[in-house]
Amino acid sequence: MTETPTTRVLLTGATGFLGQAVLERLLSAHDGVHVTAVVRPKGSISGAQRLRQLLRKPAFRTWRETMGERAEQVFAERTAVLEGDLSALAEITEPFDVVIHSASTVSFDPPIHEAFSTNVGGAIGLYDALLSSGQDPHVIHVSTCYVGGIAKGLRPEAPVDHDVDWAAEFDAALRAREEADMASRTPERLQALIDDATAGHGKEGPKSVARAAEAAREEWVRTRLVEYGRTRAQSLGWTDIYTFTKALGERVAEQKWAGAGHRLSVVRPSIIESALRHPYPGWIDGYKVADPLIMAYAKGALPEFPGLPDSVLDVIPVDFVVNAIVALAVGGHRDASGTPTPAGAEAPEPGFYQVCSGASNPLPFHQMYENVLAFFTAHPIQDDEGNPIRVPEWKFPANNAVERSLAVKEKLSAVGGKLTAALPATSRTREWANSMHKMQSGLGSLRTYVDLYQSYTRTEMIFDDARTRQLNDSLPAGTPEDRTFDVRSIDWTEYWQHVHLPALTEMTKAYGRLRAASRRRNAPRRTLSEATDVLAVFDLEGTVLNSTVIHQYLQLRRRTLGLAKWPAEAVDLVSSAPTYLKAEKRDRGEFIRAFMRRYEGVPARTVRDQVAGPLGRDMRRLLRPGALARIEEHRAAGHRTVLVTGSIDLLVEPLAHLFDEVVAGRMDERDGVMTGYLATPPLVDEARAQWLKKYAEQGGYDLTRSYGYGDSHADASWLVLMGHPYTVNPDLPLYRLAKKNHWPIEDWKTV
């Protein structure tokens, strides 16, 4: 490409990590270049808006400072947008001298159809559109060094030797989505999903079960498609779906573009990390390939890892990749000897350039680890309490010792999780459940890292970079160092200790500050704002009252049956306990209906007399002090306090004076005697949620500003409606949900 005011570049992937850097370098170092970026809309944000937003990102900071007040104007003059998706690209009518295709999905384990749609379908769409336009631009296709699949030894800068039919694989991958979806809809699969959802969400109500079952079905489909991609790639000799689809994307470029007689250069970076020099040392846009592994180690989550200490971890700073791409864009296509190929040359061979470090400046995995160990020993990450985290020392054990140890821990964790779930909810068991959750989460992360990364930390491949070094050597004399890409100039200790790891640590701290700020914004206020359109809704048993419907019944019958009949009633209640427990686990309403049958034949007047006397006094003594204080706070703030319970109205009369309104069940009576049936369905789980919506609508109350207090998993259905949901001494399922959703967990002890 000869730089003139009419030089035009088409760039894909401009909003990505590498694409941003390429765009910035073209603008900052080559005044005669105009860039049109292919950008798809995202939600309500147009492609043009997304491109303009790039100017505010850190990648453009240096250029903005150089341009000053003219930055926005110059950016608008020198960039344009071709809006749309690569897989369905609109007709290309604008003439281009160079096309840089850097768009891709950089994920090791996406669902197979997503990986193919971007990495293969995007290439198909781009090259079909270019061919239809009748143009002959020099195309620079960005791939990865790892396209060669599972192999050992030196990997040349040459086409990958395989005979996979990319078109057949592409069609099969897109069909896989429909096939997996259909497999998820068989009666057997759906019933299994319903059973699991009922076990986990039955107490929340049928709608919650249905939502959970459908979410699980969608997750099953996604997991199936991830497994499909990983297994298909490995069956053909690749480590994962990412490298497999990148290899097929290269073959699309070779056959469709180079095969039609056009100029094609394929740039294969290794593992791209933060910039060494430009736009400034340490520039990075989010975590890249190696960074989650590094930060997990820094947080003490990786006590050991299955890597070969002598394996070469091929890392390359992003500005080296950018400079190689720009050198090809400016210098044009070159033949194997490095001679530029003019436009229109007869059937030029594609050029392959591996921008990597393993051959010319190797970084053994143990050396990288030693740098990371030294840095985080001197500059430890802090835990949530502000204490420094001590990083572990790896021994690199042989013979899959890490895998065996991880498998044992996973089995023990699964057993521990089941045992904890079976225990009654107490402060101690909630602590155990929280510890078990953290352990399982940590093991899950470790499993993910082991499965995804060990192919890269155990590799015995070395990537040749002779042609890339030749390209660097051809740069004009006097080229500034920050525009070169000679990897032999990298001091790895300097890079890790003073460039990449400090940048990574600062980015992690910035994420932490954002999360902390979000927690502060969402933290419950210590003082309540005064309002008359706000509800404070309280559950009764286990929340306001340290009692249950069983305890209330026992106290009532002990006082009314007399010594002769009471023992038999107690024995019958104990024998029925397993039935009640099973009902309670399945459905709160089912339990209440079953238990209330015990009131059959009890005179309503007997209950009223007891509630007005000793039973009422006992209930008031069981009120939780924390509940009384919170109720008073809400009433002082002008909030409408509402007690909602599945218990019967007669039993809650002693507490009615505490609330503005009490909503309870009612027993059916005949001639003043209870029949054992409820007069209306119990107001629990989803029924309570629907009632609450209607109540707020009729009374003009704002649920998004209202407060809810519950203790049981059955309360989750209505707590989610409240702007301020609180869990009070929750059972274990509600406790886990509260931790997941960051709901406050209150401990209202009795005295």
UniProtKB/TrEMBL annotation:
Annotated Thioester reductase (TE) domain residues: 11-325
CDD domains per record: FAR_C
Keywords (A to Z) from UniProt: Hydrolase, Lipid biosynthesis, Lipid metabolism
Matches recorded under Pfam families: HAD (PF12710), NAD_binding_4 (PF07993)
InterPro entries: FAR, FAR_C, FAR_NAD-bd, HAD-like_sf, HAD_hydro_SerB1, HAD_sf, NAD(P)-bd_dom_sf
One of the GO BP terms on file: suberin biosynthetic process
UniProt entry tagged with the keyword Phosphoprotein: no
GO MF, one annotated term: hydrolase activity
Family according to the record: Belongs to the fatty acyl-CoA reductase family.
Protein known as: HAD-IB family hydrolase
